[in-house]
Specification:
Helices cover 33% and strands 13% of the residues. By secondary structure, the chain is α/β, with parallel strands linked by helices. It folds into two domains: 7-102 and 295-326, NAD(P)-binding Rossmann-like Domain (Rossmann fold), CATH 3.40.50; 104-286, Rossmann fold. Helix 4 links the parallel strand 4 and strand 5.
Length: 338
């Protein structure tokens, strides 16, 4: 039996099998909330070998320094890691790991659901029924966008973007893709069915724009007022990537003034707060960050997060390290299993 050694700190409790996997080899501490920076620093100063934060936890230089010299890894329970100062972690010999791959299909399903809801105005209709404002079928009541033959513009054609493209093709949509940076490998079955376009052309021609980009300095507010003005007045914007890829204030104006027909959002720029006025936009479908929210997906993410942490405790580079160069020489193992 592997001896328990090392300490793992989770800000929020992970779903099983994550806790069982961690508790079998290490002391597991769970704060049970998203802490303030001061609270997280205090917890790290008590001695932590691996930190497992959430997307809402800001892991900056001050937090990393509070964990020194013992902290060896930050294993985030997410694919995105823009909340972690990776450069600072690398400089301090702290490896950062994430949970890619396991939430691709769940997030693609969520994106497709937002496309359907926004294009067909389903949430507007739901509100009207609940408010007693549905008086019966009428020829021009809440008319929406036909998806058949509509052009879906996928911005960011990685795993999730390609999964959305497959689903859209099943709805007889046409698909085009744009990359903000270098092109990524495209699955063989999609190659001939997806047109690659420059982003400005994609914005002006697509009926639906779906965003699947990481948040970087280059993608922050990529969809701003200028980009929204390029879109068709009948077009719909979907964001299941990162909130700050979209200028939320500009989007609110665009929806209120009819620059575009609608939007479906699962992420927000200052989550959980929304830009003033966004909640009052009837043509916005607002989902509370449910992209990966299935029982199976969240369990798979927890397992992967735990595996990353266990590898770090064993002195092995986690399989999904985003900065493997942080460990020029791996640290000594705290648990067996090298």
């Amino acid at each position: 039996m592997t001896a328990v050694a090392g300490t793992v700190l989770c800000t929020l409790a992970l779903p099983e099998p994550g806790p069982a996997r961690l508790a079998a080899v290490a002391e597991l501490r769970v704060m049970g909330r998203i802490p303030t920076v001061t609270e997280l620093q205090a917890a790290l100063r008590e001695g932590v070998d691996v930190l497992c934060p959430q997307l809402r936890d800001r892991i900056d230089v001050d937090v990393l320094d509070a964990g020194r010299p013992r902290l060896r890894a930050v294993c985030t329970y997410a694919v995105g890691y823009d909340n972690v100062d990776v450069s600072a972690a690398t400089a301090r010999g702290v490896i950062v790991a994430n949970t890619p791959g396991v939430l691709t299909d769940a997030t693609a399903d969520c994106a497709m659901g937002l496309i359907l809801a926004a294009a067909r105005r389903l949430c507007e209709g739901d509100r009207r029924v609940r408010q007693g404002r549905f008086s019966g079928w009428e020829p021009e009541f809440l008319l929406g966008l036909d998806l058949q033959d509509a052009l879906l513009g996928v911005v960011g054609f990685g795993r999730i973007g390609q999964a959305v493209a497959r689903r859209a093709l099943g709805f007889s949509m046409r698909v085009a893709a744009a990359e903000h940076s270098s092109p990524r490998p495209v699955a063989d079955e999609l190659g001939e069915r997806v047109r690659v376009m420059p982003l400005p052309d994609l914005l002006s021609e697509a009926d639906v724009i779906s965003l699947h980009l990481p948040l970087t300095a280059a993608t922050h507010h990529l969809i701003d007022a200028t980009a929204l003005r390029r879109m068709k007045p009948t077009a719909v914007l979907i964001n299941t990537a990162r909130g700050a890829v979209v200028d939320e204030a500009a989007l609110t104006v665009a929806l209120r003034e009819g620059w575009i027909a609608g939007a479906g959002l699962d992420v927000y720029e200052d989550e959980p707060r929304l830009a003033p006025g966004l909640v009052d936009c009837d043509t916005a479908v607002l989902s509370p960050h449910l992209g990966s929210a299935t029982v199976r997906t969240r369990a798979a993410m927890a397992e992967l997060c735990a595996d990353n942490a266990v590898a770090a405790l064993a002195g092995r580079r986690p399989r999904h390290a985003v900065n493997p160069e942080a460990w020029a020489s791996p640290p000594p193992p705290l648990i067996g299993g090298r």
